[in-house]
Specification:
The chain has 132 residues and is α+β, with helices and mostly antiparallel strands. It is built from four helices and seven strands. Strand 3 and strand 4 form a beta hairpin. It is globular and about 40 Å long.
Length: 132
């Protein structure tokens, strides 16, 4: 995983990984902070996770945005609808859902994840989650 600074936020890029979208990892990453995860997966579900102070507020698979979990699953409904992730919609596959998830993340953070982020130097490390 690589981590870089983008405004007041740290941005983590986890190539070929999916751990950042796990509830147990999102809660640790958001301890005394806020985290937003957009996960794109080649052969499983793509996910969005918003966590604050060690608790997942809103999380959902991008293919089924109507099925949300967390302590405030409806908190992002208006913003979801604005970016094209229908919070009441049926499950569907859309080639634009990853872009919509990044747009949703940008609305909440004020930070746009653009291609130049990937061209900047990143501090590299390993994201394993909490110790068992």
């Amino acid at each position: 995983m690589g981590v870089g600074q983008l405004g007041d936020w740290s941005v983590a890029v986890e190539p070929w990984g999916w751990r950042g979208a796990l509830t147990e990892v999102a809660t640790v990453l958001s301890a005394a902070a806020e985290s937003v995860t957009v996960s794109r997966h080649d052969y499983a579900e793509d996910d969005f996770v918003h966590a604050v102070d060690g608790a997942v507020l809103t999380a959902f698979a991008l293919g089924t945005p109507a099925v949300r979990r967390g302590s405030a699953p409806d908190r992002l409904n208006a913003a979801m609808a604005e970016v094209g992730l229908d919070p009441r919609g049926e499950a569907r596959r859309s080639e634009h859902r990853i872009a919509a998830a990044f747009a949703l993340a940008a609305r909440g953070t004020g930070v746009a994840f653009t291609p130049d982020v990937l061209e900047a130097p990143l501090l590299v490390g390993d994201l394993r989650g909490p110790a068992a």
